[in-house]
């Protein structure tokens, strides 16, 4: 039985203790050390002073627990090795941190309420309890045997290889578990005060569920493992639901740029969302919100590791190990026992080293420490068997009495024991074939830096140069950060063996320089730095939460939030018709593609309904109606030939006519087309080298389209084409513009915005100064119209326009003040205006065309 004094020394609290004690500290100043100054009142209400709050949501709580076999009481303590506990050091000093997650021990149902109360009041933890079936589906099923292998580039090509295949029941179990996590967050969440930080792939659909509950929640997500390339990720049947859920965060963090790039590539290929870099930050524009991307590898807790190194127990262990391996060069590896850590490849490299350099037999040792596997399954058993067999073979071949080239420690070791092994090892080998971050190399480097207590035990003088040597796989997240490491391809056994040989014989001076470089980086980029940087970026990403209005779009996990300006609102038929009826000189400007006709329509000819509405509007003597389009004048003339009084502005205003029978006018900035002789050959080169691209020839412009090309390659080629054309057209009176999946060259001074200014100016000269202006469009070129309208309204030198309705199609950021949802809504509104002009006789509907 554990005595009370023992519990006190361990910082443990039992359920029984909780019943009797009035005051037990809730948080810690230093890891593992309780602070009475931060204790709440006896009712567990927390400190009186107002504090900032962070809610950390992770698969597991930072709590260790066990059940006393004699008293049957549960005993708990903070797990000082837990990353989610350590990141607290990066938050401001007055921050109150709450944790939501599962306990690492299974608690019987009848004890769950009592344990939950203890967790809540004394640890600021909210446990999520899952049934055995829920946990098997969520964690052991979908997370560890489907997502985890897939994110590490192992496809389930057969039922016996590469994890389990997609199973809808496991996916549903994953969603259910994420919902249960959200329910626990909701229990403690304070809207407008708390920020929520979600961790890792176990909870990738949580953001959608939580965002639906709280539109303005400050929500960050960090993926600790790798994010696979789009070729791998696209094999997931629920890929879009996962992406859209993650995009409901304000900030998404990754360990390396490669992982972030893979995520952004998936967003581009699967959702058509492109990223942009602005002032050092990367963002994705998603339904009016900027989803920020953060790239920063996790660090270690320097204070905790340095404290371990200063303990007499660590020094004693290190001294014993140094004596045990006296006269030998020790290489160390510490890995989880799973298929991706490359332990068997590391052992094979050790065998190859001794085969190529037999003089090293007896003088070099590889100590491999295997951490317990985090999941259950056949794959773990296979890895354990394979590594053991290879180690035994090499030891039999090259070992002798008193010497084993591979010391395979397959039992759990404490942090102090691992630190002792790190401290006496000349080289650390991290040989994973795929891993998210892997902090073993960080811990090794800090341990090699030593401490006063450790140095004394090992006989190291303070003036002695510290040295270390790292052999790192190219496929782990920490590799880019440690530039002094010897990088290897873990699959190339000979190369790893050569790296081991280099590490054994490298001069101490060079080892010192490499060590110093690594230690300076690791000590300045610790876990507190990482958490502080993420927290600050999350706060920056959420600054505009209350400057916009939000609308819920979609169902289930396809749910997302559309953000618009506070003054941005839906245009109703009643609103515009009231203004329409009270005015006498009206200008109506209509975009065509995407506004009056769906973008997806194959037949671009306007429906009879549209022609009928346009004719009705044009027949009203108070109206001037124009189609303002980027299309050429020939197709527009053909399509709208039934509309005698309709004005058309083609190719963004390069050509304009006021009625069907009037002549086409060319804009005043019209120039010759000699520049096309320069542009066409350049675009043809890029078309020939970019599969899926094509050239569109207009009378006034040339457009290179790449919407059917590979998204990444097309975007890269578009950038190159833009730079190329700008360089060869420097002295030509044209502009080169990059739009959505296009690069366009057109004369300077041609835009839809200038069309608006010219039409209003002409009407005013003719004594028909408009008192009603309705302008609607759906894409970037239409924003030029909205911008010109805003500029005209702000000009004090121009006559005011009484009623102005600038309207975009769709929920998205716009310079317009109004929006309509889609093309049917546009037609409905125009029908309302036509009815107001002609009375109820205009009743031709879409159904009549069917």
UniProtKB/TrEMBL annotation:
Does the record bear Transport in its keywords? no
- Offer an example of a GO molecular function term for this protein: trehalose-phosphatase activity
Q: What is the lineage of its organism?
A: Eukaryota, Viridiplantae, Streptophyta, Embryophyta, Tracheophyta
Concerning Pfam families, the annotation shows: Glyco_transf_20, Trehalose_PPase
Query: What's any GO biological process attached to this entry?
Result: trehalose biosynthetic process
| Protein family | In the C-terminal section; belongs to the trehalose phosphatase family.
Would I find Transferase among this entry's keywords? yes
The name on file for this protein is TREHALOSE-6-PHOSPHATE SYNTHASE
Q: Which InterPro entries match?
A: Glyco_trans_20 (IPR001830), HAD-like_sf (IPR036412), HAD-SF_hydro_IIB (IPR006379), HAD_sf (IPR023214), Trehalose_PPase (IPR003337)
State any GO CC term.
Answer: cytosol
Keywords, comma-separated and alphabetical: Glycosyltransferase, Transferase
